[in-house]
Amino acid sequence: MKVQLTHNGIVTSINKLKEDYILLSVTIDGRPAFRPGQFMMMQVSDSYDPLLLRPFSILDEHNGEYRFLIKIVGRGTRLIADFTCGKSVFLTGPFGNGFPQEAGGRALVAAGGVGIASVYAFLQMLHKQGVPYEFIYGARTKNELVLLNLLKPHHPLLSTDDGSQGYHGRLTDILKRKIRPEHTVFACGPMPMLAVVKNITLQQKAACYLSLEARMACGFGVCLGCTIFDTSGNTKRVCKDGPVFEAGEVSFGKQIAKNR
Amino acid sequence: MNKKLLQVKIGSMVLKNPIIGASGTFGYGAEYKKFISLGSIGGFVTKGLSLEPRKGNPEPRIKETPSGLINSIGLENIGMDAFLRDVMPGIEDAGTAIIVNIFGTAMDEYVELAHRLNRIKRIDGIELNISCPNVKAGGAEFGKDPLVVQTITQKVRDVTNKPLIVKLSPMVTSIVDVAVAAQEGGADAVSIANTYPAMAMDLKSRKPFLGAKTGGLSGPAIKPITLKLVYDAFGKINIPIIGVGGISSAEDVLEYAFAGAAAIQTGTANFINPEITAKLASDLHDYLTGAGIRSFASIVGAAKSSIGS
Ligand SMILES: Cc1cc2nc3c(=O)[nH]c(=O)nc-3n(C[C@H](O)[C@H](O)[C@H](O)COP(=O)(O)OP(=O)(O)OC[C@H]3O[C@@H](n4cnc5c(N)ncnc54)[C@H](O)[C@@H]3O)c2cc1C
Ligand SMILES: Cc1cc2nc3c(=O)[nH]c(=O)nc-3n(C[C@H](O)[C@H](O)[C@H](O)COP(=O)(O)O)c2cc1C
Ligand code: FES
């Protein structure tokens, strides 16, 4: 069955936040439905260079206006930073499995850095469902803790590596203190952080879901460029089988070495 | 609507129009049902299939380059059994030509794969990917040596009467020699061409960026190079040429047609706009009717035609 998965959006606002973060709003006709943790692929250039669309999590949607939190890290995201209101943007999606629709018991949500973009819609969902949850949000410095106003209803436990705001240290230290076996942990952030989250939840025998990132060409499962090898050695597509995986499936050995 | 306007014949296979989804970029076809009506395109080629499932190469497997993409997927696929058992039922109603791309590391594998496909009615054509390492010949490609190309084509021809397309490597001394070899071996068409060997470095580690070190370059960056290969081969063989390399717009399709492509495949462009094949078919229709051209076939090879335009 054909569904509308390509869109010509219009930029309605673009705000520079602290440090290298941007909050981008795009109206999309047809108001495609999405689940928390799903993402869209965004065209960054009107020419063939850069060629590929870039994946970004959907933060939220109001009356057909979709928001994205974007961290500037390279050429494509720098081009997005130059978008102006009224610009038309080609997008595909929403793609990916997203977070489970039910948190099951008590939820512990952990976001590291720009990982906040992926868990934000999920937090909103938990809030609406009235499920008990706690939320930990960490970054390197206070300048990289963004959207704090929007996050107030979720009572974030903040941490920074340099101690400039909140707990001085890693967010995984807070997680270690908070976690109980009856918790289900949901986390998104850099690979080394997710590796630690996995270990902590394993020790506590708590359920855990991780939202991963990978370089993507298509975003919908056909190029096999985003493939990871799971703990059983089988291939999984981050875009289609993920980006959210049960922690038990995710093998970290190689990625950590690479990210260090 | 004039049905003949866009119609293309490849051996006994009749395509509604010359737009085909390229192998490795179109999944197994079913993945595109949510994007387009498959019946609106000429056909699609499945991801390359081997006898046994393959897990492919280590990550990272893709690297974007200026107007291009290097991939080292390593021919990850579900294997022929799973394809026939799990995928075929879901694409039988596709309303378009289904072409199955096959590869092996020994000639016998190609023969066995083709033999198995020959029994499946709904499969309209077979495309041989001969640009993969030949284990028996110490890792050299099947596709480099015209004699090997002819032999492998002949062996597959012997076990199938389905339309047979041989997909050529662009990295050959003479594209004409390999195209002629495929024709002599009994091919109904040649696809020109596969990706170009390429690589990128990781600035931090000072080592190759891709897990497999090298990969194949595709996308708009390669269009002028492959276009020339099509032009070179046109007129030197009697079987149709399917042009594939960097096609992203109706203008690109026309360039390939003028150079001699009777049909085209789009690869990388599907990743950027998954509806591109359907759009190209409709844009091409509009262009031809707008320009008062009676058929797509009539413009194929225009660049070498003495009549001109
Ligand atoms: C499912 C998913 C959801 C995501 N959601 C978000 C989100 O909501 N917000 C967000 O900000 N990001 C998100 N991302 C990440 C985002 O997609 C990337 O940051 C973005 O694609 C980068 O594009 P770019 O062109 O700016 O960077 P690129 O230019 O592609 O480079 C990215 C990084 O790789 C490095 N790099 C590139 N080439 C080389 C090389 N040869 N050697 C060494 N290093 C190299 C660059 O220096 C840079 O740090 C998500 C990713 C995924 C997979
Ligand atoms: C990610 C990817 C996977 C591919 N896999 C295959 C394959 O399995 N078999 C094959 O014959 N060609 C494969 N190709 C090559 C394409 O079919 C095509 O020949 C090539 O990409 C050039 O066309 P393009 O520039 O339009 O992408 C692949 C290409 C890409 C980008
Ligand atoms: S990005 Fe293409 S398969 Fe995941």
Proportion of strand residues of chain A: 25-35%
Give the beta-strand count of chain B. 14
Could you spell the SSE succession of chain A in H and E letters?
EEEEEEHEEHEHEEHEHEEEEH
Unreliable runs of chain B: none
Low-confidence stretches of chain A: 255-260
Number of helices, where a helix is a run of at least 4 consecutive DSSP H or I residues of chain B:
8
Sheet with most strands: strand arrangement of chain B: 3-4-7-8-9-10-13-14
Task: Tag the structure with descriptive keywords.
heterodimer; A: 260 residues; alpha/beta; seven-stranded antiparallel β-sheet; seven-stranded mixed β-sheet; 6 helices; 32% strand; B: 309 residues; TIM Barrel; eight-stranded parallel beta barrel; four-stranded antiparallel β-sheet; 8 helices; 28% helix; globular; binds flavin-adenine dinucleotide; binds flavin mononucleotide; binds FE2/S2 (inorganic) cluster
Question: What report would you give on this structure?
Answer:
The complex is a heterodimer of chains A (about 260) and B (about 300). Chain A has about 260 residues and is of the alpha/beta class. In chain A, about 20% of the residues lie in helices and about 30% in strands. Chain A has 6 helices and 16 strands. A 7-stranded antiparallel beta sheet of chain A has the order 4-3-7-1-2-6-5. A 7-stranded mixed beta sheet of chain A has the order 11-10-9-8-12-13-16, sandwiched between helices. In chain A, strands 14-15 form a two-stranded antiparallel ribbon. Chain A is globular. The relative contact order of chain A is 0.14. Chain B has about 300 residues and is an alpha/beta fold. In chain B, strand 9 (about 165-170), helix 4 (about 175-185) and strand 10 (about 190) form a beta-alpha-beta unit. Chain B contains 8 helices and 14 strands. An 8-stranded parallel barrel of chain B has the order 3-4-7-8-9-10-13-14, surrounded by 5 helices. A 4-stranded antiparallel beta sheet of chain B has the order 5-6-12-11, with no helix packed on it. Chain B has one domain (about 10-55, about 75-200, about 215-305): TIM Barrel, CATH 3.20.20. The interface of A and B includes residues 1, 2, 216, 233 and 234 of A. The complex binds flavin-adenine dinucleotide, flavin mononucleotide and FE2/S2 (inorganic) cluster (FES). Flavin-adenine dinucleotide sits at the interface of chains A and B.
